[in-house]
């Protein structure tokens, strides 16, 4: 090996060491940059997310109220240790109300004690309110003629609409005859589409 080559080796080593030093410097700078970026993102999440979440919650509540269907208190009874509201419901929402089912009235989920549909699709249902429910809500202040808002369970609505559409599709021309037969027996197609009452979890 010549003397020239021997002199070049230390230079190559020094060049490699400088390159590694530069790489370490760039890596540290990158880590610092990402740390600052993540910290700023976390700060935004902590400061902004609660406000956005609150806005979305309020928006959802407003949309829910707007989508709720108006109904009217038709009768108020007060048997011992109970408070019964009979609520009149317009068509077509009554098709989704069944005895032993669940319905939200003014935001409170209640069990339907009795329900009855009229020929025009309207009807009524009753809810029995225990003292604890009256204490936690404003139902005790409702008188005959008072307006309340009801919300149908989405699962019940989908089930009834699906079964009803299947019946319409399968029977076709026979549908009027079936409706007449059911009417003679005091029943309707909506009764056939009634979902089974399941225990509440």
N/C terminus separation: 87 Å
Q: Which range best describes the helical content: under 10%, 10-25%, 25-40%, 40-55%, 55-70% or over 70%?
A: 40-55%
Which fold name fills CATH's third level, the topology of the largest domain?
Elongation Factor Tu (Ef-tu), domain 3
Global shape: flat
- Class of the largest domain, according to the CATH hierarchy? Mainly Beta
Summarize the structure in words.
A hairpin with a 5-residue loop joins strand 5 and strand 6. The chain folds into two domains: 67 residues; 125 residues, Elongation Factor Tu (Ef-tu), domain 3 (Beta Barrel), CATH 2.40.30.20. Strands 4-3-7-1-2-6-5 form a seven-stranded antiparallel sheet. The longest helix is centred in the N-terminal third of the chain and has 65 residues. The mean pLDDT is 76. Helix content is 51%, strand content 20%. The protein is α+β, with helices and mostly antiparallel strands and 201 residues long.
